[in-house]
DNA sequence: TTGTGTTTTATTGCCTCC
DNA sequence: GGAGGCAATAAAACACAA
């Protein structure tokens, strides 16, 4: 198994000067000198040097190599239990896998990035379905409202017609009941229920929830502190390797830290 | 086989924390 | 100031259709 992490990259040439492992050229060192110096290739000054077969025969250039499935499996398992690496664990893993500690660290870094990307996707779908549900609830309530209003109008008209016919004999105009009038006057309906602005739809969501509508949860995986539907999509937790606590905890209730995260990593997980 | 898109590994630069 | 984290990115490796 190739264990050193540097590689030679002809495409990254600058004029005729070819560099190996830019990580050790200035800036922060990508691996310590003990790890790298013994394996570092000399600079090449020409293409002849670059493609010197003798060199490759005696020292196979380290190209970027994929980790074996066993290595990845072990790394994944380790990531599942704890997504950050303490130095000791990094060294142990590196020894166990026959990798440079730097490679293990890089793998965890990239793995966290992948997890975050996936989590953002999940959160997006979650928020979208929550919004769609709220919107559909609101729309159906709006429909009901219109229906009831037209019913009230019809009944008011009927009542008025009835009163007119019963009041036909002169001198018998009964006093109107102000309470009843207000209840049945369709003109005043807006006093009973003020219209909801479109932009208020989301914020009014909590008042229109029913059994099937999104509810608040306090223990959901998410990247954001935010709303989640009580009926979560099935795919939300179906990936064993991505079974980390998500950060999308409910929007109204203070959230708790995910079990796998250290306190110093809260920034990454989106908690404050 | 080859062109192209995706995934994985690695680097760089900047930021924060101690 | 050093160590370690993250975002952005490069580039190799891989997958796959044509």
TrEMBL record:
A Gene Ontology CC term for this entry?
nucleus
Where does this chain mainly localize?
Answer: nucleus
Localization terms from the record: Nucleus
Query: Which organism was this protein described from?
Result: Eruca vesicaria subsp. sativa (Garden rocket)
Q: Which UniProt keywords apply?
A: DNA-binding, Homeobox, Nucleus, Transcription, Transcription regulation
Q: Where is this region: Disordered?
A: 159-183
Q: Output the superkingdom of the source species.
A: Eukaryota
Q: What is the name listed in the Swiss-Prot or TrEMBL entry for this protein?
A: Homeobox-leucine zipper protein
DNA-binding region, residues: 60-119
What's this protein's family per the entry?
Belongs to the HD-ZIP homeobox family. Class I subfamily.
> Any idea where the Homeobox domain is?
58-118
Keyword Transcription regulation in the entry? The reply is: yes
Give one GO molecular function term. Answer: protein homodimerization activity
């Amino acid at each position: 198994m190739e264990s050193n992490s540097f590689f030679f990259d002809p495409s990254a040439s600058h004029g005729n000067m070819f560099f190996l492992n830019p990580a050790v050229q200035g800036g922060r060192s990508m691996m310590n000198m003990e790890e790298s110096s013994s394996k570092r290739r000399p600079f090449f000054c020409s293409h002849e040097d670059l493609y010197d077969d003798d060199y490759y025969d005696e020292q196979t250039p380290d190209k970027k190599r994929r980790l074996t499935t066993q290595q990845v499996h072990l790394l994944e398992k380790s990531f599942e239990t704890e997504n950050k690496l303490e130095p000791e664990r990094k060294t142990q893993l590196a020894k166990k896998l026959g990798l440079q500690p730097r490679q293990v660290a890089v793998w965890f870094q990239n793995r966290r990035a992948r997890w975050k990307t996936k989590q953002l996707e999940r959160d997006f779908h979650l928020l979208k379905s929550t919004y769609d549900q709220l919107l559909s609830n609101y729309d159906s309530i709006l429909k009901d409202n219109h229906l009831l209003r037209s019913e009230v109008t019809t009944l008011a008209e009927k009542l008025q017609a009835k009163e007119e016919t019963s009041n036909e004999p002169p001198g018998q105009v009964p006093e109107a009941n102000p309470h009843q009038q207000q209840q049945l006057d369709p003109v005043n309906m807006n006093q009973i229920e003020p219209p909801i602005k479109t932009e208020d739809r989301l914020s009014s969501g909590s008042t229109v929830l029913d059994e099937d509508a999104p509810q608040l949860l306090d223990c959901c995986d998410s990247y954001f502190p935010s709303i989640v539907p009580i009926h979560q999509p099935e795919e939300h937790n179906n990936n064993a390797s991505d079974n980390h606590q998500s950060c999308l905890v409910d929007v109204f209730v203070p959230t708790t830290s995910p079990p796998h995260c250290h306190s110093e990593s809260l920034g990454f997980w989106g908690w404050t």
